[in-house]
Design a protein that fits this description.
The structure is a single chain. The protein is of the alpha/beta class and 444 residues long. The protein has 14 helices and 15 strands. Helix 8 crosses helix 14 and helix 12 crosses helix 14. The longest helix has 19 residues. It is elongated. The termini are far apart. The structure holds zinc ion. Zinc ion binds next to loops.
């Protein structure tokens, strides 16, 4: 496809760029594959990943089978860069551009990326890096971080030998700032609605209304946003999901509250969607779960509880909020261009009652955690976290520990530590439940 088509405002949001050009491409594919150092292994891996006989692809599978991507390769070219994915079946992508920083984003149907760790982290020339992963239910996304404005010249599927799948080749070329700005111009509406919304908890099917308060547990990060990384391969998004699941199970076992998770699998949910979910569901409490990392400070350790504030309580709290808030921007969401609902959320940000309840909950958390969990030497802090901005839902963000600390890493990956810590947090949650409407007034 041409760059001009990509720039067409009216067509951009639904224009598929994965036009299949199977015929006459075999020779080109063979040349391509010579460039893949691990060709034999890749094709073997792909064959293993395809869950139906290769011949079935000719007619198309009877049921929708999720596409598997088993290899990715980035090359520098004379005019820009080339990104090649090896996939089990042809890919169809909807592209758009974002500025500040410059990115090209490809929205795809759900794709299972089975790529080696660190794929896409080291770029070449025009492409600084690229990221990929699930982006909500049934959708995936590739985000290409650019060192300079660029456009997609073509995106072409070509079959592998013996119908073992396909290569999906994206050719990028440098573009001038003006053209890139024009490309990015109409993207907000597309990107702002592209994130997945969390799913409400399954309410009781009986006519009896469940009047127990709802606790929303928010496992940080997910999908192509891994969060912090530990020195031994630990990934924050997995640690937060495991912990949140354990905490939800503990609360459900006790039976005094309803529990909902903002995500229950490895999918991406935007920060504003997480906050909006808690607001829409009229949650009694919102608890966001994270793990921190501090490069060059292996001895900094322990859990820290954060509440929402306009101004950070200290420089480190400001650093953590900046890091956690960056997620939506990296995902191709423009948090500066939010809709009316979010604007009203921001306006009501400092509702006094919510603030008082949040601080009381945070203090209770520290009290119940202290006998069981190593706390940071300054365990109660505040900063401007996007995910805590629901105006009427008391909330706290728990950084369970530092992936940069060896001792914390051992704790964070220990099932026993997880269960003990979840019990302590569950106790704090139950202690802070409003006994009756208006109880907030008593929270002082
Ligand atoms: Zn985090």
């Amino acid at each position: 496809m041409s760059g001009a088509m990509l720039g067409s405002r009216s067509e951009r949001s639904f224009l598929p760029i994965g036009a299949s050009r199977r015929l006459g491409r075999i020779r080109a594919v063979v040349l391509y594959l010579c460039g893949f150092a691990l060709f034999g292994g890749l094709v073997a891996g792909l064959a293993a990943a395809i869950p139906f006989p290769a011949g079935a692809m000719e007619q198309g599978p009877a049921v929708a089978v999720r596409t598997v991507v088993v290899a990715a390769k980035l090359e520098q070219t004379a005019s820009g860069a080339r990104l090649v994915f090896v996939a089990s079946q042809p890919l169809t992508a909807t592209p758009f551009a974002l500025e500040k920083p410059d990115r090209l984003v490809l929205d795809l149907p759900e794709v299972n990326f089975q790529l080696p760790a660190h794929t896409g982290e080291a770029g070449t020339g025009l492409v600084k890096s690229f990221r990929y992963g699930l982006f909500g239910f049934g959708r995936s996304r590739v985000v290409i971080d650019l060192s300079a404005p660029a456009r997609i010249v073509s995106a072409v599927n070509a079959p592998l030998l013996k119908d073992l799948g396909t290569t999906f080749t994206i050719e990028l070329a440098r573009a001038d700032r003006e053209a890139f700005h024009e490309l990015a111009g109409g993207a907000h509406a597309t990107s702002a609605t592209a994130s997945s919304a969390p799913v409400a908890p399954a309410r009781s099917a009986t006519p009896q209304k469940d009047t127990r308060p709802l606790i929303v547990i928010d496992p940080g990060h997910g999908g192509f946003d891994p969060g912090a990384m530990g020195g031994s391969g630990e990934v924050e998004k997995n640690i937060t999901l495991e912990f949140a699941t354990t905490l939800a199970a503990e609360l459900e076992r006790r039976g005094h509250v309803q529990v909902a998770l903002t995500r229950s699998n490895d999918s991406f949910v935007s920060l504003t969607d997480r906050a909006r979910f808690a607001h829409d569901q009229n949650a009694a409490l919102f608890v966001s779960i994270h793990a921190d990392t501090l490069m060059g400070s292996p001895h900094v350790h322990g859990a820290t509880i954060y509440t929402l504030a306009d101004h950070a309580s200290d420089a480190d709290a400001a650093r953590v909020a900046e890091k956690e808030n960056r997620v939506d921007q990296l995902a191709g969401l423009d948090s500066s261009n939010t809709d009316e609902e979010v604007v009203s959320i921001l306006d009501d940000l400092m509702k006094r009652e919510t603030k008082v309840l949040s601080l009381a909950f945070a203090k209770k958390l520290i009290q119940t955690l202290e006998p069981h969990v190593r706390l940071n030497k300054n365990p109660l802090r505040a900063a401007s976290f996007v995910v805590l901005r629901a105006p009427d839902v008391p909330s706290a963000l728990v950084e369970l520990g530092y992936l940069s600390s060896e001792a914390d890493r051992a704790s964070l990956t220990s099932p026993q530590w997880r269960e003990e810590t979840a019990r302590a947090i569950a106790t704090a949650i139950e202690a802070r439940l409003p006994a009756q409407p208006g109880a907030a007034a008593l929270a002082n």
